[in-house]
Amino acid sequence: MRYVGDLDQTCSKVLLLPGAVGGRGQIESIMKEKPDVLVCGESNEGKHQNMCVQQMKSG
After folding, report:
1. For residues 31 and 35, what is the distance between their CA atoms, to the nearest angstrom?
2. How far apart are the C-alpha atoms of 25 and 8, rounded to whole Å?
3. Residues near 46 by Cβ (< 8 Å), separated by ≥ 6?
4. For residue range 7-56, what is the model confidence (pLDDT) as tens digits?
5. Could you give the angle at the alpha carbon of 39 between the alpha carbons of 50 and 28, nearest 5°?
6. How far is Cα 5 from Cα 25, in angstroms, rounded to an integer?
7. Which residues, other chains included, contact 32 with Cβ-Cβ below 8 Å and sequence gap of 6+?
8. Residue 26 to residue 10: CA distance in whole angstroms
9. Nearest Cα to Cα of residue 39 among 59, 58, 8, 11
10. Are residues 48 and 20 in contact, defined by beta-carbon separation less than 8 angstroms?
11. pTM, full prediction
């Protein structure tokens, strides 16, 4: 399991994406739902993790 972010942040919304949803589907869901926490199955860790971190930093 990997995590990125501020562990002291208050969490009010969790997005659960089990299994291999696919990169595009994961990114679209994150952008639409704007969760505080994302729990997902498989992902392209290098590419999509960096995209998620950049999106979180930009708000």
Report:
1. 8
2. 28
3. none
4. 898 999 999 988 776 677 778 888 899 998 888 877 666 666 666 677 66
5. 60
6. 21
7. none
8. 22
9. 11
10. no
11. 0.59
Give residue for tokens 């505080």. 36
Positive or negative torsion for Cα 41, 32, 23, 38 = negative
pLDDT value at residue 48: 60
Instruction: Please compute, for residue 35, the number of CA atoms within 13 A of its CA located in the half-sphere on the CB side.
Output: 15
Question: Half-sphere exposure of residue 20, counting CA atoms within 13 Å on the CB side?
Answer: 2
The encoded tokens of residue 35 equal: 């969760």
Cα-based angle 24, 28, 29 (whole degrees, multiple of 5): 115
